[in-house]
Amino acid sequence: MKKKSEPIVNIIDLNFYYGDTLALKGINFDISEKKITAFIGPSGCGKSTLIRCLNRMNDLIENVRIEGCIKIKGQDIYDPSMNITELRKRVGMVFQKPNPFPKTIYENVVYGPRVLGIKKKSLLDDICEKALTRAALWTEVKDRLHVSALEISGGQQQRVCIARAIAMEPEIVLLDEPCSALDPIATAKIEDMLVELKKDYTVVIVTHNMQQAARVSDFTGFFMMGELVEYDDTTELFTKPKKKKTEDYITGRFG
Amino acid sequence: MKNFFKSGNPYVWLTASALTICLLMICGLVMLIMIKGLGMFWPHKIVSICLKDNVVVLGELVKRESVPYEEDAYRSKLKVGNRDVYGLDFKWINDDDIASMDYPLSAITIERREWGNMYGFLEGLRKDNKTEVVGMDEARELVKESKMLYERIRHIEKKEIGDINHLIEKNRIKLRSLIMQLPSEKLQKKADRVKEKIEALEKTYSEKEALLTELYTEARKKEFIIRLADDSEKVLPVFQVVRMYTPNNMHIVSKMGFYVSKLWEYVSGEPREANTEGGIFPAIFGTVMMVFIMSIAVVPLGVLTAIYLKEYASDNFLSRIVRIAVNNLAGVPSIVFGVFGLGFFIYFIGGSVDKIFFSEALPTPTYGTGGILWASLTLALLTVPVVVVATEEALSSVPRAIREGSYALGTTKFETLWKVVLPQATPGILTGTILAMARAAGEVAPLMITGVVKLAPSLPIDHHFPFIHLERKFMHLGFHIYDVGFQSPNVEAAIPMVYTTTLVLVFTVLTLNIVAIVIRNKLRKKYKTSLV
C-alpha cells in the first residue's frame, strides 16, 4: 500500500440534489495532495457531479442544492464568504470535450494569466512555454503558437486545454473524462503527461475507462447510484476489492 | 398514388414550388424595375407621324397598346414634349389615324432646364437681333460654352453667396445673443463690431448679386430658333439647353457614350424641375448617411439590451413579458414610431436642446425641428427589436462548453462575456445589423414627419464648421420615389424616374448589405468553432 500523503480535500457528508433528485448521497472521503485520484463507475453514478462540486461549476446550473461540506486546505468552499472566482483559480478544470477558445494557441494558454492582469509580453511568453511543456505539447506546437487552436487535432486541443488550466498554477487539477473524445494514441500521451503532472499538482480524474484508472491513478473511488461504494489504493481496489459490487464492476459483470 | 405520397416526394415538390414562386416574384420585380428604369437614359428615336388630317406630330414612342373595348384597334402613346407650347407631354394616337410615319435624321431632342424636353429641328441662332444659320457641331459648342457659364453662376449662387449667408446668419445670432445679455459698455462695443461685420458682408452680398444679374443677361443673349412639328418657330435661349442631340442620326457607340454620361449625371447630379429630372445624388447621400447614423445608434443599444436580457436577467415572468414586448415592437406600424419621434425627439428633446444651447436663434428652431439625427434615431428605435432578437440568438448559439472553459479559469461573468462570448457572437450580431439596415433604408413613413424633405438646400455634410450638420433636413430615396411618382406636377413624365430611383434604392441597400456581409464572413471564419 502506497503511503498516504496529507489530504488536501476533505469531503464531509456531501448530499447533492438536482431539483428533488438526490444525485450524491452522503459522500465522505479525503483526496491526497500531489497524487492522482480517479473516480470510476457506470454512467450517471454521480462521479462527474462530484468533480464539478470541487470547483463549484455546479453553481452555473439552476435549481441545484448542496448539503454537507467540502474543505480544501481546511477552508469550506461552500462558505458564503468564499470567492468563487478565486476558488476556480486555485482549482483548475479540464472538460470531457476539448473546448479551446476560438483564438490562437498562445492566446488560449495565456487567457487566464491575462485575466489575472499580467501584461508583460516576456512573462506571458514564459508562462505559455512552461504550461505547454508540462502539457507535453511544446515540441509539437512551438512553431505554430499563433495558429488558431481550432486547427490542431483533438488530442492537441485537449492538451491546450490542460495547458490553459495549469497556466493558472492551480493547486488542484480536475479532469472530467478528458480522454473520452480522443483516440488511443492521444490518450496515451495525456496519461504520460498526467503522471508527470502529479509531481507538482494534485490531480483528480473522472474516467469511464477502468484500465486508465488502473494505469495512472494512485487512489480510486468507485461510485454507483450516487454513492461512494469503495475508496482505496488503486492496486488494492483492483486486485482485492472489498465489496461485492466493486468486484462485479471491475470484472465486467455489469456496467 | 398512395405510394407516391408515402415516398415523401410530394413534400419535396411542395417546398420546391414554394421556393420557385418566391424566386419568380422577386426576379419579376427586379426585372420590371431594371427594364423600366435602365431604359430611361437611352437616346430614344424621334418619330414624325403625319396624321390623316394633315397634322404632323413629332416625339418619342413610349408604348403601344390595344384600344380598350375595341377589337383590332391599337393606339400609341407619343411623348411630344414641348410642354410650354402644348400643355401636355404626351399624346395618344390611334393607328387608324396615321397616314405616314418616318424618322427624320435632323430631328433633335433638347433637354431643357425648364419645361421638360423639346423636339424639333434646329433652324438657326439669333444673336444681337441678327439671325444666322448654325450646324449641329457649332450648336454643341455653344451649349458647352453656356454650360460653363451656368457652372459659374451655380458656383456663385451656391458656394460664394451660400458662404456669405452662412457668415451673416452666424453674426446675426452672435449679435442677438450679445443684445440678450445685460447691456454694458464692453458688450456694446462688441455688438457694434459685429454689426459692422454684418454690414460689410451684406455689401459683398449685393456685389455678388449684381455680378449674377450681369451674368444672367449675358447668358440670355444667344437664342436658338427651333422649328416645331407644326412648322411654327420657337425661340429658345442657349442657356436653357442642358443637352441637345439627334437620336435618329446617332451611332450605337455614341448612343452608349450618351447613356453613360446621362447615368453619371443621374447618380452624381442634383435634381431639377421639381425632382422629375436631373440627378438624385442628395437623396443617395441622405439615405446612406441616415443608415450609418442609425446603425451607430441601434447596434450598441440593441446589443446591450440583449446582453442584459439573455445573460443577466433571470428567466422569470417579468423577463418573458419584456422579451415578448420587445419582439412585438417590430409589429408596430412605422408611422407610429414617426409620431413618437416627432413628439419625443423633436418637440421634447430637440425643443429642450434649443432652449439650452441655441436660445439666441429662437424662435427659429435648430434641433426643435425635423432633421437627419432625429430621423435616424426614430429608425433606430424602429429597428432595435431586430438587433435585440438577433443578438439573443447569437448569444445562445455560443456553446456552453466555451463559457464553462472560461469560468473554470476563474473569470467573472463579465470577463467571459467580453473576451469569449461576444467575439463569437459578433457574426450573429452583424446579421441582425444587416437586417436592421435593410429595414431602415427602405422605410419612408416615419421619415416624412421627422425630417425628410422634397428638396434639401444643402447636404448634411459640408465645408462649414462643424462639417457634420445633424440638425439639417435631408433627402431620401424612398421619399423621393413617393414624391416623384405621386406628388410631382407632371407625374406621367416622371414614371421612368420612379423606376430608376427604385433601382438605385435597391442597389444602395444591396451595397450596404454586401459590405456588412463581407465583414461578417471574415469574422465568422475567424471565430469558426469546430469542437471535435
**Which secondary-structure class do the elements of chain A indicate?**
alpha/beta
CATH C-level name of the largest domain in chain B: Mainly Alpha
Compressed to H and E, one letter per element, the order of chain A equals EEEHEEHEHHHHHEHEHEEHH
* Global geometry of chain B: flat
Biggest sheet overview of chain A = 6 strands, mixed
**CATH H-level name of the largest domain in chain B... which superfamily?**
MetI-like
Total helical elements of chain B: 15
Question: Secondary-structure element sequence of chain B?
Answer: HHEEEHEEEEEHHEEEHEEHHHHHHHHH
| Largest sheet geometry of chain B | 6 strands, antiparallel
- Radius of gyration of chain B over all CA atoms, rounded: 31 Å
Mean pLDDT of chain B: 87
Estimate the helix proportion of chain B, in percent.
55-70%
In CATH, the architecture of the largest domain in chain B is: Orthogonal Bundle
Give the termini separation of chain B: 45 Å
- The termini of chain A sit apart by 27 Å
Taken as a percent bin, the fraction of beta residues of chain A is: 25-35%
What do these coordinates show?
The complex is a heterodimer of chains A (255) and B (532). Chain A is of the alpha/beta class and 255 residues long. Chain A has helices at 47-54, 84-90, 105-109, 111-116, 121-134, 138-141, 154-166, 184-197, 210-216, 234-239, 244-250, and strands spanning 7-18, 21-32, 36-40, 64-72, 75-76, 91-94, 172-176, 202-206, 219-224, 227-233. In chain A, the strands form 2 sheets. Chain A has a 6-stranded mixed sheet with strand order 6-7-8-3-9-10, sandwiched between helices. In chain A, a hairpin with a 2-residue loop joins strand 1 and strand 2 (21-32). In chain A, helix 5 crosses helix 7 (154-166). Chain A is globular, with a radius of gyration of 18 Å. With 532 residues, chain B is an alpha+beta fold. Chain B is built from 15 helices and 13 strands. Chain B has helices at residues 2-6, 9-38, 83-86, 136-180, 185-219, 252-268, 281-312, 317-329, 334-357, 372-396, 400-407, 413-442, 445-448, 477-487, 495-526; strands spanning 46-51, 56-66, 74-79, 90-94, 98-102, 107-112, 117-127, 130-132, 223-227, 233-237, 241-245, 271-272, 277-278. In chain B, the strands form 3 sheets. In chain B, strands 6, 7, 8, 9, 10 and 11 form a 6-stranded antiparallel sheet that branches. Chain B is flat and about 95 Å long. Chain B starts with a helix and ends in a 6-residue tail after the last helix. Chains A and B meet through helix 2, helix 4 and helix 7 of A and helix 11 and helix 12 of B.
